[in-house]
Amino acid sequence: MVAAASTGLLFAMSGTSQATPTGAEPTSSPVAASGLATTGGAFTATPSATLPTTPSSFSTVRWGARGGSVNTIQRIVGTEVDGIFGPKTHAAVKRWQGRNGLVQDGIVGPRTSAAMDLSSSSSGDRSSSSASRSSSRSSSGVLGYAAQYTGIMYSYGGSTPAGFDCSGYTSYVFGKAGISLPRSAAAQQAATTPVSNPQPGDLVFFGSPAYHVGIYAGNGQMYDSGKPGIPSQLRDVFSGVSGYGRVG
After folding, report:
1. Which of 115, 126, 137, 195 fits as disulfide partner to 130, beta carbons 3.0 to 4.6 Å?
2. CA atoms within 13 A of residue 229's CA, in its CB half-sphere
3. Which CATH number applies to 126-248?
4. Helix or strand or coil: residue 157?
5. Distance CA 223, CA 199 (A)
6. Residue 216 backbone phi and psi in degrees, to 5
7. What is the pLDDT of residues 105-120, one digit of tens each?
8. SS3 of residue 4 by DSSP
């Protein structure tokens, strides 16, 4: 009886009758999965394998999401800030991904989140790693700050996140990146080097002397604070450009 029971136990634990559900990943037998091995009919404990883990601090943000994280993403990509991840935000995320060399799927997954530095943006400040790269005019420098400070309503004479006018916005953004600019659009025009082939991070001027200025983002778009009633935003460069200027 004892021998028969032992034989039945070994047969049940051997996994020979274990079926793999259709479409499921193949699994090892219960014996192997439990970290037990058989030696001459006896069970001995063996160290179980350490499985890779996924950081739990990140949550993918996609179409249909709502809340503060969506607000942050909308400010970064330069679209209307309403806390709802809908078609406009989806399209803006895809454009932002394209400008930053990422797969354009409109989903803020781990790679896009890292590029946006979302892990440290909950307090409204950029991380020290972004700050260390802030002298660059790339998306991690001036353009990163330009995106961060979208969604702020126009205010004549404004030069803080409480409200911006056009040159107040550009001078504040460049200042966050550690680059000093004069306060007015005309003075910024005079302080830059004219270029005919603009690169992202160059200034876009309207009029000579300039009466309006924005930050060129590439692909025919710019960041600017345009006029009363609309927020700082990413939008297409409109007609009337008098020239582009490079800082530094």
Report:
1. 126
2. 0
3. 3.90.1720.10
4. coil
5. 13
6. -70, 130
7. 999 998 898 888 876 4
8. helix
**Whether pTM exceeds 0.85:** no
d(CA 93, CA 108): 8
The Cα 133–Cα 212 span in angstroms is 28
Which residues participate in catalysis according to the annotation? 166, 212, 224
At 193-224, the pLDDT tens digits run: 999 999 999 999 999 999 999 999 999 999 99
**How far, in whole angstroms, is CA 147 from its chain's centroid?**
10
- Alpha helices by DSSP H, listed for the chain, are 2-13, 30-33, 68-77, 87-99, 110-116, 128-131, 142-148, 166-176, 185-191
Measured distance CA(247)–CA(232) in Å, rounded = 21
Q: Where in the chain is the domain with CATH 3.90.1720.10?
A: 126-248
Q: What does the alpha-carbon distance between residue 174 and residue 168 come to, in Å, rounded to a whole number?
A: 10
Q: What is the pLDDT of residues 156-205, one digit of tens each?
A: 999 999 999 999 999 999 999 999 999 999 999 999 999 999 999 999 99
Q: Is 84 exposed, middle or buried (0-12, 13-18, 19+ CB in 10 A)?
A: middle
CATH 1.10.101.10 location in the chain: 60-123
Q: Closest by alpha carbon to 227, among 208, 215, 211, 243? A: 211
